[in-house]
Design goal:
Blueprint: H1 3-9, H2 14-32, E1 41-44, H3 49-64, E2 70-74, H4 76-86, E3 92-96, E4 102-103, E5 108-109, E6 123-128, H5 133-139, E7 144-150, E8 161-163, H6 171-180, E9 204-207, H7 219-229, E10 235-240, H8 246-252, E11 257-262, H9 265-273, E12 277-281, H10 284-291, E13 295-300, H11 305-308, E14 315-319, H12 346-349, H13 353-366
Parallel strand pairs: 1-2, 1-6, 2-3, 6-7, 7-8, 9-10, 9-12, 10-11, 12-13, 13-14
Antiparallel strand pairs: 4-5
């Protein structure tokens, strides 16, 4: 259970925790406060694939309004995605967080002595684009002239300038909030959409998995959908090597549908580059496709499309609206997107193949792919 969820269930302890956290972080921050003449900037972006993509518009905006050297603290897979956008930007360096630095089920970054992530680097400004206890654990004993960012209010005293995480906004906008603490925002809409770049005769790619099971529509449904769509356009199903046994898929598919098994993130990126549309659950590959300019169709269930869908008319989605669906101001449904006691995953179970197929067909006609 997340700390914020625990506090919601026990609201009486909130004032005591807030006072304790403010005192601890204020004393710690003042003790470690250092003034550096360096103008170098550190951006903390400790995200999974989809959220990494969502930070790119905000980082691009900062780059376009600053001439400072930038270092991004991130995971190895995030660097692969950032390289798709920033490979020619010589002002950007990276600090990679090794997996063995993560503790408490990946919620904390543990640094000690000579193994400090930042080493001898001296940063004038640190911008936190993560906004969780994970980035707070990095910042807790980090020295810098100025630390800004978004996070829960319990971590606000770690920062010189802090904003609480907004509810009901697209995730791209939330990361712009962090940038606004160092750079005034204006005309940011042009940064929020990745330029369309797809050929209508390239195959349609289907990725049937997601970050966790409750976000998945179901393999059998995707197989049947692939069969139906293959009558109109070339179809591929792409899977990670560790995903689903390939022979299981072969039992359910006819020859027109091709199966591609990828071993690395770069191989998945290559397959997406050679597709016209990606069809998937709410997952990282959807946002990689968006970054690469491909059209996308997303099947949403326990997550909120208002906050997640890629920007642009070449993106569409479907969601079964139930009483337990995420509220407009919430990122996930009441069960933390199914991970916290959803009894039956009805939002995915009730979504029929015919509903998805008919909606996709209209979308493909609109794109002139069929």
């Amino acid at each position: 259970m997340k700390i914020t969820e625990f506090i919601k269930k026990h609201p009486s302890i909130s004032p005591f925790l807030q006072l304790s956290a403010d005192t601890l972080f204020y004393i710690n921050h003042k003790f470690y406060k250092r003034r550096y003449s360096s103008e170098a900037v550190l951006i903390i972006s400790l995200h999974k694939l989809g959220d990494t993509i969502f930070t790119i518009p905000a980082i691009n905006y900062f780059i376009s309004n600053s001439n400072k050297k930038i270092t991004i603290l991130c995971f190895e897979e995030s660097k692969v995605l950032y390289d798709l956008e920033f490979i020619e930007e010589d002002r950007i360096d990276y600090l990679i967080v090794p997996k063995d630095y993560l503790r408490w089920e990946g919620r904390l970054v543990f640094q000690k002595g000579k193994n400090n992530l930042l080493g001898k680097e001296k940063f004038g400004t640190i911008i936190d684009l993560t906004g969780t206890i994970l980035s707070a654990s990095v910042l807790f004993r980090t020295q810098a002239d100025k630390i800004v960012g978004i996070n829960d209010i319990y971590f606000r005293k770690i920062y010189d300038n802090h904003l609480p995480i907004r509810n009901g906004s697209h995730l791209m906008d939330i990361y712009f909030d962090s940038i606004s603490l160092t750079t005034p925002l204006k005309n940011i809409s042009k940064f929020k959409m990745f330029k369309p770049s797809f050929r209508t005769d390239d195959p349609i790619l289907i990725h049937p998995l997601a970050g966790w099971k409750e976000k998945e529509w179901g393999l059998k449904k995707f197989i049947e959908l692939a069969e139906l769509l293959s009558e109109y356009h070339p179809i591929k199903i792409v899977l990670p090597k560790s995903g689903i046994a390939k022979d299981i898929l072969f039992d359910g598919l006819s020859n027109p549908v091709k199966i591609v098994v990828t071993n690395t993130l770069n191989e998945l990126i290559s397959e997406i580059k050679n597709s016209s549309v990606l069809i998937s659950n709410d997952s990282g590959p959807i946002h990689i496709a968006s970054l690469l300019g491909k059209a996308t169709f997303t099947i949403y269930g326990p997550t909120n499309p208002i906050m997640h869908i890629p920007n642009g008319s070449h993106h569409s989605y479907i969601q079964k609206k139930l009483s337990c669906a995420p509220r407009p101001e919430n990122k996930y449904c009441f069960a933390d997107a199914g991970r916290n006691g959803c009894p039956s995953n009805e939002c995915m179970q009730q979504l029929k193949i015919s509903e998805v197929f008919n909606t996709i067909i209209l979308f493909l006609h609109k794109l002139k792919i069929i």
